[in-house]
Amino acid sequence: MIRISTEKESRLCYWFKRLGIGLFALVFALSCIMVFINHGGVARFSPDVREITFAHWQLEDGFREGFDRAIAEYEEIKARQGVKVKIRQVSIPVRGYQQWQRTQLIGG
After folding, report:
1. What's the angle, vertex CA 42, arms to CA 41 and CA 45, rounded to 5?
2. Cα–Cα distance measured from residue 105 to residue 50, given in angstroms and rounded to the nearest whole number
3. Rounded to 5 degrees, what are φ and ψ at 39?
4. Looking at residue 15, what is its pLDDT?
5. Fewer CB atoms inside 10 A, N or C side of the chain?
6. Sequence-ordered list of residues with C-beta below 8 angstroms from that of 52, at least 6 positions apart, any chain
């Protein structure tokens, strides 16, 4: 059986702890950046653009594309009327739709 001396063992433990803390800090920083980018930390549109979020659970083929066409047509009609509108389509799986809807209503 090979035995590492206690001095080498304590040095190895020291570096493993430092590696663990470093990896934790890196992953935490990356997750903070992703939350900031994905959830409104940066304004997506100018203040004079009205943003509408349209959520649905229709994940089958063709629904999202159909909704995209309807959204583009609606935005075009509103642009002709002089109103700046940007509609965001969010597809939520059926299993999580009810929970997502509740949290979005509570969260504003």
Report:
1. 135
2. 18
3. -125, 50
4. 86
5. N
6. 85, 86, 87, 88
